[in-house]
Amino acid sequence: MxxxxxxxxxxxxxxxxxxxxxxxxxxxxxxxxxxxxDLAEVVIxxxxxxxxxxxxxxxxxxxxxxxxGDDSDIRVVNSSSDVRKILAISNFDKLFDIS
Amino acid sequence: MIAVQAAxxxxxxxxxxxxxxxxxxxxxxxxxxxxxxxxxxxxxxxxEAFRQQRPQLVLMDAMMPVMDGFEAARQIKALAGETLVPxxxxxxxxxxxxxxxxxxxxxxDFLAKPYNQVILAAKIKAMDRLRRLxxxxxxxxxxxxxxxxxxxxxxxxxxAVFDKVAHSGCLxxxxxxxxxxxxxxxxxxxxxxxxxxxxxxxxxxxxxTGHGLPAAVGAMPLAEVFYGMTAKxxxxxxxxxxxxxxxxxxxxVDMFCCATLLSLSFQRQSVEVWNGGMPDGYLHSIASGERTxxxxxxxxxxxxxxxxxxxxxxxxxxxxxxxVFLLSDGVIDTCDVNDQLFGVERLQQVFAANRQPDALFxxxxxxxxDFRGExxxxxSMVEISLLDPNLLSPPAPIYSDSGQSCPLDWxxxxxxxxxxxxxxxxxxxxxxxxxxxxxxxxxSGALYSVLAELYSNALEHxxxxxxxxxxxxxxxxxxxxxxxxxxxxxxxxxxVRVHLxxxxxxxxGCLVIRVEDSGKGFDVERVMARPVDPVRLSGRxxxxxxxxxxxxxxxxDGRSARVEFFWEALA
Lengths: 99, 571
Prior knowledge:
The complex is a heterodimer. Helices cover 30% and strands 29% of the residues of chain A. Chain A is an alpha/beta fold. In chain A, strands 1-2-4-6-7 form a five-stranded mixed β-sheet, with helices on one face. In chain A, strands 3-5 form a two-stranded parallel sheet. By secondary structure, chain B is α+β, with helices and mostly antiparallel strands. Chain B has helices spanning 2-7, 20-32, 43-53, 69-80, 96-104, 117-166, 212-217, 219-231, 236-250, 329-332, 343-353, 360-372, 418-423, 427-434, 438-441, 444-463, 474-490, 524-529, 540-548, and strands at 12-16, 36-40, 57-61, 87-91, 109-112, 176-179, 189-195, 201-208, 257-265, 270-276, 281-284, 291-294, 314-317, 323-327, 381-385, 410-417, 495-505, 508-517, 550-555, 560-567. Chain B has a five-stranded parallel β-sheet with strand order 2-1-3-4-5, with helices on both faces. In chain B, helix 11 crosses helix 12. Classes of the chains: A alpha/beta, B alpha+beta. The A-B interface holds A 21, 24, 50-51, 53-55, 57-59, 61-62, 65, 70, 82, 88-92, 94-95 and B 207, 209-210, 253-256, 258, 276-279, 296-300, 303, 308, 329, 333, 339, 341.
């Protein structure tokens, strides 16, 4: 599995980890990882993501929409310098808490 | 057993065997298994039978008079073409070389004499499976090829329609160089350029998420907004707000458009930039060799709601010959075999090594090829230089009305107050109103430039009290526009009044424009005494107004400006 999701014991936090290239090929898996859940707090762990393309940015927007849009609480963590550059160019730090 | 036989469609099987007894025996075995049988007594007869009746499978004796089985197999395979006609060799040969030869000439299997009925039936079944597999593969291949043709045709038509829209602009202007794959549209890349009524140039390089038709769909409304609003004289901020609102409304949540939008002013020698999600562009100063990055300060278009969208732009001074270079992420995201990105550092190395500014695109392409071995098909680059405006010829706008209802004797006054000045640009409306007067249409460029200068003088120096001498140097230039944004944001009162008066004079007519502001005014005599200096960054507005309009003068300590335009009888 290249997209792994895990819910915290109190059921409040969903952590989604993406491995390898985060691109259109992960569309289905990524969507399935959160679709059926109520999202109070989401963490996207990109520790093992090597690359991120614009369709991955689109997937993040879909997730944000699903999690309540402007009221969502989504953190993107452990992004590599390459991945962070892509997020910075797109100014996604204005929508997500990126570290 | 019955079930298996029912599943097996009866085949037409050709039996080529020179021994009449063997032929008879084999025929009856095969018939009993439910198949139709054709027979041939040698290779030549077998080829002829195949030619005429196209059996689906062949049982072929290897050793026959006239033409042996090897040659017959070769010819039958050639006749069958792409269709798989399995050939099973019947042979008493036992040395492995001879058996191997059966397969080399195109045979699919062999069966040793004497015949074992069970094995023969099994082999026919196995070969029939192969035959059908091949048939299915061919059908699917043809279907895919047909779909692919449809798709290419659809793309061709879509591209032709789009090219009509996209190329209504001025991408062929002498100061623009660009490089785009012919099907860039289907990679989501979009390049648009058009002149404003004042002769400024707006350029958009955009990159939609995704590929194929979905990426191309959003391009059409974006182009419409870009061309429509640029032609009407709207500025970058209004155009951006409209483009963002439109894309936000029509695109699904996960689709958006990274874009850089530029406004190049040849008169003011400056460039205004908004970058949402595109890689850094570069402003290349030819004199100093310096390249100022034009950074992405914003989210892409179509992500934020109209209420949260940020239309703030940055303005940079330019000198004649300076260039603005924009590129799509296809350049820096090109990967080598080890998934390493080409990256910004390598791009900057190409900049540093570039000796011939005109060969920059070629240098970058070469570097990409050296890095990767092959070029990606979604690389877009554009370079716009600041030329002497006299070298550019913005196309004359086309009007569709007849002129029968042209208004010739009227006046109108507007007062734009603080809350309006903050957000609203009245110039496109004023220009549209004035261009109802046919006699003014031939001077629309000058008219718009003068209106724009009068309005921005009244707003920036009058209402906002900005000091134009700030724009003396490059750092001051940036500070000026920062102050402009800050003061506009904080503006609570003040006004700009615009009075327009059109009167007929003989066969022609006269337009008087008066613009007043609530500011402190300025020392008219001192400003008017200044020589017209085309290289200075500041104070260009006043000399432009004096050059383009007639009888320009200022009263009320500079708080009121008056300019006239005349026209003669229409041809």
